[in-house]
Amino acid sequence: MLDDPGLYGPRRPLPLRVRPVPGESTGSFVNRLAHANGLSLAAFLDRVGQGEASAYTERVEKYPQSTEMYMNEAGLRYLAVLADRAAGLLQQDLPSLGAEHLLPGEEAAQWWWRWEPVAGHLVRYCPLCGDDLGVGEAVSLMSTDSWQVCLRHGYWSDDSRGRGPDCVPLAELPETLTAHRVRQQLAKQWGPAGEELFADAFQVAVY
Ligand SMILES: [Zn+2]
Questions:
Q1: Secondary structure in 3-state letters for the chain
Q2: Cβ(71)–Cβ(97) under 8 Å?
Q3: What is the pLDDT of residue 136?
Q4: Distance between Cα 156 and ligand 1 center (Å)
Q5: pLDDT above 50 for 2
Q6: pLDDT digits 0-9 by tens, 93-137
Q7: Short-list 151, 154, 145, 159, CA closest to 185
Q8: How confident is the model over 44-77, as pLDDT tens digits?
Q9: 50 CA distance to ligand 1 centroid (A)?
Q10: For the chain, what is the mean pLDDT?
């Protein structure tokens, strides 16, 4: 019976559920799920499986905006039980749980914190959008761009890891909002070519 890896897995969901924000980083979601249930990140991770970064959980907890969590299939199954959400649904919302990013290794649950995400950028989610969803704490996204603009609230955020503010209000920089709208229109109209057109225009403006 001790050979049965299922023995070590969680049996029941945590009492309080947390909804993932579409595009959220796994680390951000796991952090919120732990905190919602009154657990430190370290206590939570003990339930998800074994991780090579266990030595610096404290750092991970302190800087969730700077690191991303990856896991293998068994780790994903554990997380699905704890979060009370089907693994497939978690994979839909959390890009780093995509099949292409799952760690190898079948038997025991594994998780791994990387200081640089494998793909994409860790960018802070607009705090006002977070308030609208009632998330209660900072959310990090795994973004394909190294920045995000919230047109609804006029906020800019990026993947800089300095001590500055996580988000910058764009009230005094309406040009940025206009440029972002134009970029979205180009992308909608021309697909990837639109993105490239905008990138070209950006390079021309820089030089
Ligand atoms: Zn917003």
A1: CCCCHHHHCCCCCCCCCCCCCCCECHHHHHHHHHHHCCCCHHHHHHHHCEECCHHHHHHHHHCHHHCEEEEEHHHHHHHHHHHCCCHHHHHHHCHHHCHHHCECCCCCCEEEEECCCCCCEEEECCHHHHHHHCCCCCCEEEECCCEEEECCCCEEEECCCCCCCCEEECCCCHHHHHHHHHHHHHHHHHCHHHHHHHHHHHHHHHC
A2: yes
A3: 84
A4: 9
A5: no
A6: 999 999 999 999 877 888 888 877 888 899 999 999 999 999 888
A7: 151
A8: 877 666 665 555 667 677 776 678 889 999 889 9
A9: 36
A10: 82
Which pair of tokens denotes residue 68? 């991303």
pLDDT at 56: 63
Q: How far is the CA of 38 from the centre of ligand 1 (A)?
A: 27
